[in-house]
């Protein structure tokens, strides 16, 4: 009887350890309920029009994805870079419009090598363009740089690169409280660090202080890596078009 109880306790302990390990290794999939097969529209949300239109949202999202693939200079740069690196994108296989938690607009699933566009959040073409570009940088790093998302330094680096290349304009820095007209360069770096920090904390269950330390450790190298776009994209500028024109210089055609 005593031995059986000990075995049961051990089994429970193993089960708890496995659960804890799963939590530690979580990659943010709690933010993507449709991907986990757990999404069900709530009656209250259906009544107020927040949910219940998933089919219509998906069609609209897929149309925006298609428009970005065909029309967006920066998305074309990323597609060319991935193709030249031996990882061509098939939009039917590698891009999925899904229902997500409202705290995220998109994501990258390294297990399936697939970009998630949150159809209930990224409802405009401009937002979809931003999601595609951001997540394609992760896809590029996974393809070309042998990115391991279980390695915290790798994760921090790719989040720094994505924020640096596509997210942090002066306006973005200002909205995050990182901007200063007297220290524009420092403001941009602070914006990148803040954005990368939010992204890391969203997908991995670690403490803020630990995440900050990891970001600071890899920041100099990752911040200066501008592949494959070649420049930091400023809002309301011609940078996207310039990057598209310059792509051939990097061998991305």
Describe the 3D structure.
The chain has a three-stranded mixed β-sheet. By secondary structure, the protein is mainly alpha-helical. The protein has twelve helices and three strands; from the N terminus they run ααααααβββαααααα. Helix content is 60%, strand content 5%.
How many H/I helical runs?
12
Quick one: overall form? globular
* String of helices and strands: HHHHHHEEEHHHHHH
Rg from Cα: 20 Å
- Amino- and carboxy-terminal Cα gap: 71 Å
Taken as a percent bin, the fraction of beta residues is: 5-15%
Structural class from helices and strands?
mainly alpha
Poorly predicted runs of 5 or more residues: 1-26, 170-182
């Amino acid at each position: 009887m005593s031995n059986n109880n000990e075995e049961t306790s051990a089994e429970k302990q193993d089960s708890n350890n496995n659960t804890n390990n799963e939590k530690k290794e979580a990659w943010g999939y709690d933010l993507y309920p449709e991907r986990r097969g757990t999404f069900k529209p709530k009656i209250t949300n259906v009544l107020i029009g927040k949910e219940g239109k998933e089919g219509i949202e998906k069609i609209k999202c897929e149309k925006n994805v298609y428009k970005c693939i065909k029309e967006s200079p920066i998305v074309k740069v990323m597609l060319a870079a991935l193709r030249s690196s031996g990882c061509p994108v098939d939009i039917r296989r590698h891009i999925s419009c899904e229902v997500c938690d409202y705290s995220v607009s998109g994501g990258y699933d390294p297990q399936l090598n697939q970009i998630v566009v949150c159809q209930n959040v990224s409802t405009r073409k401009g937002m979809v363009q931003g999601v595609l570009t951001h997540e394609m940088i992760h896809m590029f790093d996974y393809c070309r740089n042998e990115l391991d998302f279980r390695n915290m330094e790798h994760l921090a680096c790719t989040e720094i690169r994505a924020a640096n290349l596509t997210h942090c304009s002066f306006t973005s820095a200002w909205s995050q409280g990182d901007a200063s007209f007297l220290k524009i360069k420092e403001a941009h770096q602070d914006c990148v660090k803040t954005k990368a920090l939010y992204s890391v904390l969203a997908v991995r269950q670690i403490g803020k202080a630990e995440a900050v330390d990891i970001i600071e450790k890899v920041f100099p190298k990752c911040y200066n890596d501008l592949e494959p776009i070649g420049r930091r994209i400023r809002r309301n500028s011609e940078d996207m078009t310039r990057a598209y024109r310059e792509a051939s210089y990097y061998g991305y055609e």
